[in-house]
Specification:
This protein is of the alpha+beta class and 194 residues long. It has a single domain (3-186), classed as 2-Layer Sandwich (VC0802-like), CATH 3.30.2130.30. It has helices at residues 3-20, 34-41, 64-74, 99-107, 111-114, 134-151, 183-186; strands spanning 25-29, 46-49, 55-59, 82-87, 90-93, 118-126, 157-158, 165-172, 175-182. The strands form 2 sheets. Strands 5-9-8-6-7 form a 5-stranded mixed sheet. A 4-stranded antiparallel sheet has the order 2-3-1-4. β8 and β9 (175-182) form a beta hairpin. α4 (99-107) runs parallel beside α6 (134-151). The radius of gyration is 18 Å and the shape is globular. The protein starts with a helix and ends in an 8-residue tail after the last helix.
C-alpha cells in the first residue's frame, strides 16, 4: 500500500505531460494495431498512443483536413490500420467538467461559416464519461451555432442528412479539438465523426 500514493503521483505526472502535447487529428486504430498504425502513418504525419484504448493523436503539417484528403487520394495503404480519422482545426484546454462553455467561447466567431448552410454537431467525450452526455453537448452547441449564424447575417439549418458541414468535437482528457468537416473531407471513408 505504501506505493499507492507514489503510483498516483506518477500517473498524474504522465497525464500532465500527455495533456501538453499538441495534436490536430484524432485517429481510432484497429484494436491491437496501434504500433502498426503509428508506423504506417509515420511518413505522412506523427501519431502517438493515448491512455484511451485504440485512440491515437496526430500532428499533421498544414491544414489537417486538406492533408487527409490529399493523402487518401495518393496512397490509401497508409491508413490500413485505422478505422476512423478526424482532422481538427483547433485544440484547446478546458477547466471543470463542462466543455460546452469553452467551445461556445471558441466558436463564437464561427457564425459566418454556417450562414445559409446545413450542419450538425458530433462529439466524442473521452475522459468525461459519467459527467457529461455527448448528446447534451451536441444539442447545446447546435443551438448556439444557429444563434451565432443569425447574428452573422443569416440563418443556418440543422440537418442530419448529408449536411454541408459537420462540426466534429473530440475531447481527450482535459483537451478539446474541433473541426468543421465539409463534404469533400467527409468523402474520405475514414472521416466519420461519431
Amino acid at each position: 500500500m505504501a506505493n499507492a500514493p507514489r503510483l498516483g503521483i506518477i500517473a498524474a505526472m504522465a497525464r500532465a505531460a500527455f495533456d501538453k502535447r499538441s495534436f490536430n487529428a484524432v485517429a481510432m486504430c484497429v484494436p491491437g494495431e496501434a504500433e502498426r498504425a503509428i508506423r504506417s502513418l509515420a511518413p505522412w504525419a506523427t501519431f502517438r498512443a493515448t491512455p484511451y484504448r485504440s485512440v491515437l493523436l496526430g500532428e499533421i503539417e498544414g491544414d489537417a483536413a486538406r492533408a487527409v484528403v490529399e493523402a487518401w487520394g495518393a496512397d490509401r495503404s497508409t491508413f490500413a490500420h485505422l478505422v476512423r480519422l478526424i482532422p481538427l482545426e483547433r485544440v484547446t484546454t478546458f477547466e471543470g467538467e463542462d466543455v460546452t462553455e469553452r467551445l461556445c467561447c471558441e466558436l463564437e466567431s464561427s457564425g459566418a461559416r454556417l450562414v445559409g448552410r446545413t450542419f450538425h454537431v458530433r462529439a466524442r467525450l473521452r475522459g468525461l464519461t459519467g459527467k457529461l452526455e455527448s448528446h447534451a453537448v451536441e444539442r447545446a452547441l447546435g443551438g448556439f451555432l444557429l444563434d451565432v449564424a443569425v447574428k452573422s447575417g443569416g440563418p443556418a439549418k440543422v440537418s442530419f442528412k448529408d449536411p454541408d458541414v459537420v462540426l466534429a468535437i473530440e475531447v481527450i482528457g482535459r483537451r478539446v479539438g474541433y473541426g468543421f468537416l465539409d463534404r469533400a473531407t467527409r468523402a474520405v471513408p475514414l472521416v466519420r465523426p461519431r
